[in-house]
Design a protein that fits this description.
Layout (H helix, E strand, L loop, with lengths): L3 E4 L8 E5 L11 E5 L4 E4 L1 H11 L3 E5 L5 E6 L3 E4 L2 E4 L2 E7 L6 E2 L3 H13 L1 E6 L2 E7 L2
Antiparallel strand pairs: 1-2, 3-4, 3-9, 5-6, 6-9, 7-8, 8-12, 9-10, 11-12
């Protein structure tokens, strides 16, 4: 039987992993939500998140998803201004405000589901030249 036993007794000499029988250990990866206005989504790990953030740096637009702690980062070039409002069409990266308004963090699995639901609540259908497509309505 595969087992991992970790014991913590505030004993620097003996605390830690006590037994590993064939169990593969790995570092739990932090996640951000990558979601598009066509409804598809996936998660990204830390390195990919940093890469995307660096690429967005020059033209990044950030916005909270309503009154949630979730922050959407998007390419500002993909924002459309119409008489009826401002909309985004494309793919967003969603992270979480760490509570101080200056730092963003990763999402737990249940937060990914919540953020995805909040994003989808704000999708509308735009029509142009006989074509329909989904867009996120910005605040």
């Amino acid at each position: 039987m595969k087992t991992v036993e970790v014991q913590m007794d505030l004993d620097p000499v003996n605390d830690g992993v006590k037994e590993i029988n064939g169990e593969k250990l790995y570092v739990k990866e932090e996640k951000t939500l990558i979601i598009s206005t066509d409804g598809r989504s996936r998660t990204a790990g830390f390195l990919e998140t940093m890469e995307i953030a660096n690429k967005l740096r020059e033209n990044c637009h950030g916005e909270f998803l309503g009154k949630t702690p979730y922050i959407m980062l998007i390419n500002g070039d993909k924002i459309i201004k119409l008489e009826t409002g401002t909309f985004f069409v494309g793919t967003a990266m969603i992270m979480k405000d760490e509570g101080d308004g200056r730092r963003m963090g990763s999402l737990r699995d249940e937060e990914i589901k919540q953020a995805e639901e909040e994003f989808k609540k704000r999708l509308v259908t735009l029509v142009g030249n006989g074509q329909e497509f989904s867009a996120y309505q910005l605040m």
